[in-house]
Write the structure tokens for this entry.
Amino acid sequence: MQGKTPKEIIEAVQKAGVIGAGGGGFPTHIKLNASVNTVIANGSECEPLLASDKTLLKEKPYLVIEGMKYAMAATGAKIGYIAIKGHYQDAVAAVEEVLPRDGSIKLFLLENYYPAGDEFLTVYDVTGRIIPEGGLPLHVGVVVSNVLSLAQVANAMNGKPVTERPVTVTGSVNQPQVVTVPIGTTYRDLIELAGGTLNSDDVLMEGGPMMGLIVEDPDQGIAKTTCGVVALPEDQFIIQMKNTTISQMVKKSKAACCQCYRCTDLCPRNLIGHALYPHMTMRTIDYNLSEPTDHITSTFLCSQCGVCELVACDFMLLSPRQVYAEYKSLLVSKGVKNPHTRSDISIIPEYEFRKVSLPTVIKKLGLSEYVKDTPSYGYKSPDRVRIPLNRHTGVPAMPNVVPGEKVKMGDVIAASPLDKLGAVYHASIAGKVTEVTLDWIEIEKG
Ligand code: SF4
Ligand code: SF4
């Protein structure tokens, strides 16, 4: 680590293809190209059932600390925090063992609530600073990076690109587990590693139950951002909510919203003082979008955390989250920019009391029967991977290999243009390229 300049660190991170591994997919080299006083390693992993970050912290805490040191060196930060849920005792003990003695990196124990990993909330919990509406942690002198991304920063400095990641495979499967696999391992292969699903018609979700998306094609490969794959029965509440189309939801919302206010009371972004009032948006959804009101444009402030949909509106079963997602894409397509940028914000006094505990979320989501141990199964490599090229923030990566070409693990196979926001992709197994599209590259062993 000695002697590395910020420029050298940022270049190595860019070359290794490190992006936000917690789900955001924002290129880490861009994030580190900043001047801040604080870096937070986000290890909160607040989605129910997931345990990938916790497992990493337990097994390789030294890598996260090393990555944190590089992130601090790149950004000039004087203090770093490893933010973990306080009840992850094994992970907390493992990190405590390797914390530097000079006090430059500290442990911060988060409460067990959802969504503690939302960086707006993490930054407030750890530093007491409130990120402005439409802002970034950078605006309050902070860089937040997922713990796995930081471990990958450490690997990058040792010349190792991002070719693998730990994934929690859980829910309705025979052997819930955390397994480290090559990027591009198919969802089908992951489920097989977990001993298959309990029911033949179980539905797969990528990510956690709150923010995850239904997997449409199990033969596609996991991305650098895939922290979990969760199988659930077709008739499970979450699957039913996620399968409701937006037009069904808008129709239902217009007719059934009783204006009880609970979605606003529990909205985490409202609680940190942002002008987001989902119950008001539900009241105004039949307004003409050519003249959007504040309650429509406030969609730009929504994190899509799902608290309003899956926790607050558990009686009427409406989804302000889905309504916001739809309006955001409509507004963006019309070229409307976020007009909400207040920075004179105060936290709502009820902030602490209205945090929704994870056990409550699990109960409301009907997930209690799936809360099981997820032992670490180490590294497993399939015979074939399909590496997605567009699962990061920015422009997709363009393939630079052709079918029939032999590749070694770690060879560069695709990259976004250097002058654009994007990422580099590497072969995650050695073998022959069998298929190349604009969306993925398939490699078979041998
Ligand atoms: S919780 Fe549901 S019913 Fe109540 S205001 Fe919000 S959307 Fe309407
Ligand atoms: S998804 Fe719902 S609860 Fe979450 S930030 Fe958006 S409006 Fe608030």
Notes: The chain has three domains: 6-157, 242-364, 383-446. The mean pLDDT is 95. Residues 267-269, 276, 278, 302-308, 320-321, 324 surround iron/sulfur cluster (ligand 2) (CB under 6 Å). The two ends are 36 Å apart (CA to CA).
